[in-house]
Write a structure and sequence with these properties.
Distance between the termini: 24 Å
Shape: globular
Oligomer: single chain
Order of helices and strands: HEHEHHEHEHEHEE
Number of helices: 7
Amino acid sequence: MMSKPRDLAAVASFAEAGEDGRMFAPSAAKNVGPIADVLAAHAPATGTALEIASGTGQHVVVLAERIPQLHWQPTEIDETRRLSVDAYVKHAGLKNVAPAISVLATREGWGAAHAGQALVTLANLLHLISEDEARTLIREAGQALALGGILHLYGPFLRDGETTSEGDAEFDAKLRAQDSEVGYKDDWDIIEWIQASGMELVEVLEMPANNMSFVAKRVF
């Protein structure tokens, strides 16, 4: 783990400002449907759901509508984006979403501080942080889950050490050129880190645009 946590706000995806405070990220609009399908298939029947790095808030409103039996807690370290999350929730009129809070998911200890979750979900962050930070995030997510709780990870990954498209290879190389500690994580490493963190793998899914979803359950 780095001595100084990475500035995750600096690596956030591009988003346009809206007049009512709701920011818009084109990438979030494209991937939220497939993500919601996966989570709806695996979501527990009751409990709380913690979304890590909620970004603009485009995801959580769709997820809360699709999975109304869970009470959703969005998290985002950037204040402007927290305001966007809350604006989306207000506009949607949702009663099962709490106000966004700040959680630095690459820091040790946040899992215990948010223990008892039925579901923890994260999209499009692991390739923007270091391997040590990714290990910490997954370990802490396991600590945040109640026994039997579900972890969902989504984003671009290597398959057996290799990218699967020219676009992915170029993007991964660009990330590593900007910061040698970041870049796509390998699918087998993700599985190993999940299993070392008190969880068992439930399903690995190929997603649109060469992305992947990992679904795991806390078993001890």
